[in-house]
Amino acid sequence: MRRMSQPAPHVAPTVPQCVVNCAAYTRDGQRRDISLEQISDVLAVDDGSFVWVGLYEPAEAILDVLQEEFGLHDLAVEDAHNAHQRPKIEAYGNSLFIAIHTAQSVDSHIRFGETHLFVGPRYLVTVRHGASTSYAPARARMERETELLTHGPGAALYAVLDLVMDNFMPIVDEFNHALNALEQDVFAEEFRKDTVRKLYDLKRELTRLRMAVTPLQDILGQLTRLRTGLIDDEIQLYMRDVLDHAVRINEATDTLREMLTAAVSVNLSLVTVRQGEVVKRLGAWAALLAAPTLIASWYGMNFTHMPELAGRWSYWTLIGAVALVCAVLYRMFKRARWL
Predict the structure, then answer these.
(1) What is the average pLDDT across 311-321?
(2) Edge-to-edge strands of the sheet including 109-120?
(3) DSSP class of 42
(4) Average pLDDT, stretch 85-89?
(5) Angle 233-299/193-224 helices, nearest 10 degrees?
(6) In terms of DSSP H, where are the helices of the chain?
(7) Which end of the chain has fewer surrounding CB within 10 Å, N or C?
(8) pLDDT per residue over 180-198, tens digit each?
(9) CA 51 to each of CA 12, 22, 192, 295: distance values in angstroms, whole numbers, following the listed order
(10) How many of the other CB atoms lie within 10 Å of CB of 149?
(11) 63/55 Cα distance (integer angstroms)
C-alpha cells in the first residue's frame, strides 16, 4: 500500500543578523516570516497584504537590497546610511521617509539613538541606530489587535511611534526624581561642588531630550493631516493621541528645564549668601581683636606719662577696660547677627 507524502514542515527563512524582523501580514492580520528576497514576490500579489521589516544598524548591502525590493528613493536610502539625521518627514511620491530621535536609560544615564522609517502603501521599514529599544512590543501589540493591523502600514507606523513616545515617559519621570533628590542637596547646610556638576549634567541631558521630543510634534502634526492614503482617517485619530503624548512630554520637559535653571540660580545664590556670612563673621572677629590690639599698642610705646601708668591697680583697670570694650563690641555684633 502506497504511503501518502507528508507536507514539509515550515522552515523560517534565514536572514542576516542585522535584520531583526521581516514578515508579511495578510489583510486579516496573519503573519508569515519571509526572507528579503521574497519581498518583491509578496508585493507582486495585490491581495492587501503588506511587509514589515525591522533593521538594527544594517550594512549598506542590506539597504541596497531593500531599495531594490521596495523601490526606495536614492536620497532616502542615503539618509538611512547615516545615523546623524535631524528629525524630519519627507515625501517621495507615494512613500514617506521619517527620521526621529529615540532615548533609552542605560546605567542611570540617558543614551540617544535614531530611527529611520520608510512607509509605503504596502510596506514599513524601521532602521534603528544607537540606543533604541526593540520594536518587538509594537509588533506583538499589532498582532494581538488585528483590527488595527488591517489598516495596513499606517497602523504599524502608529504602533512604532506610540512605543517611542511611551519610552520617553519613564525617562521624564527619572529626570523628575533626580531633580527632587538634587533639591535636597541644594538646600543642604554644607556646599558641595558635586551638586553643581550633577545639576549641569542633568540639564544637558534634559536639553538633548527636548531636542528629540520637540520635532516629533511637527512630524506627528503632519501625519495627522496627511491625505495621501498611506494613513486612513481612523489611524489618524490614533496619531492625534500620540501627538497629545508628545505635547505633554514636551511641556513636562520645559517645566523640568525651568526648575533646573531655578535650582542652579538658587544654588549659586545660597553660596553667595554663605560666603557673605563668612565674611561678616571674619570682620566681626577682626574688630573684636582690633580693640585690645589698639589699646595694647598705645601702652607699648614706652611714653613716660601714660594714663594710670603709676597706679597700683592700673594693670587690672586696663584689663577691665579692654574686656568691657570687647563685650560691648560682641553684643553689638551679636544683635546685628554678624556672630
Answers:
(1) 75
(2) 31-33, 19-25, 50-56, 123-130, 109-120, 95-106, 88-92
(3) H
(4) 85
(5) 160
(6) 39-44, 60-70, 74-81, 136-144, 146-149, 153-186, 193-224, 233-299, 314-335
(7) N
(8) 877 777 776 666 777 778 7
(9) 16, 7, 56, 97
(10) 25
(11) 9
pLDDT in tens, 6-51: 443 444 555 667 888 888 888 877 888 888 888 888 888 888 888 9
Task: Give CA–CA dist 136/51, Å, rounded.
Answer: 15
Quick count: other Cβ atoms within 10 Å of Cβ 234? 12
d(CA 160, CA 140): 11
96, 230 contact by CB (below 8 A): yes
Return the pLDDT at 9: 44
Backbone angles phi, psi at 16, to 5 degrees: -60, 160
Q: Is the pLDDT of residue 327 over 60?
A: yes
Name residue 127's beta-bridge partners. Answer: 55, 116
Which residue in 60, 70, 53, 67 sits closest to 115, CA to CA?
Answer: 53
**Mind listing the domains of the chain with CATH numbers?**
19-269 (3.30.460.20)
Alpha-carbon distances of 314 from 230, 265, 284, 306, rounded to whole Å: 105, 57, 28, 10
C-alpha cell of residue 24: 508579511
